Amino acid sequence: MSITIDRPSAAELDFLNALLEAAPIDRGRLILALRRLESGLRERGQDLDHSGGILDDSDHSARMSLAREDERLREELRELIEHVTWYREQVEAGDEDRVLKLRGQAMLAGLRGHRDAEASLLLESTATEVGSGD
């Protein structure tokens, strides 16, 4: 199993959520937080590309379904980076707070869902490793 830094962290996502719930939205802080998020996601993507994915080669060869899920999650990460970039541009363009909140909550849901899917993949690969000797 490849070890990579947890990005985005739960604390980052909670901070973004708090920024979105503020009235009015502090656009300056939100833009900075989104830039940090983008940078972290890009770094995570590069780490995963360098290491070959969330799982290591033995996990990939042990179960093709895990390898497919690993690749799907890497592609989803690339899409999430694009979504965060697009959203940051919307904040910079000055869309109304109501619209930004709705779009921001959708983005956060996607990021949280991705984190959950990665965690599930790691748990499934660990369960496969533990059960493989039985």
Structure commentary:
This protein has 134 residues and is mostly helical. It has one domain (10-124). It contains 5 helices and no strands. Helix 1 runs antiparallel to helix 2 (27-51), helix 1 runs antiparallel to helix 5 and helix 2 (27-51) runs antiparallel to helix 4. The model has no long low-confidence stretch (mean pLDDT 88).
When the domains are counted, the total is 1
Distance between the termini: 20 Å
Q: What is the 3D form?
A: elongated
Largest sheet: number of strands, sense, barrel closure: none
Count of helical stretches = 5
**What oligomeric state do the depicted chains represent?**
single chain
Mean pLDDT: 88
- Helix/strand-derived class? mainly alpha
Strand content: under 5%
How many runs of DSSP E, i.e. beta strands?
0
Give the topology string: H per helix, E per strand. Answer: HHHHH
Global Rg: 17 Å
Helical percentage: over 70%
Low-confidence stretches: none
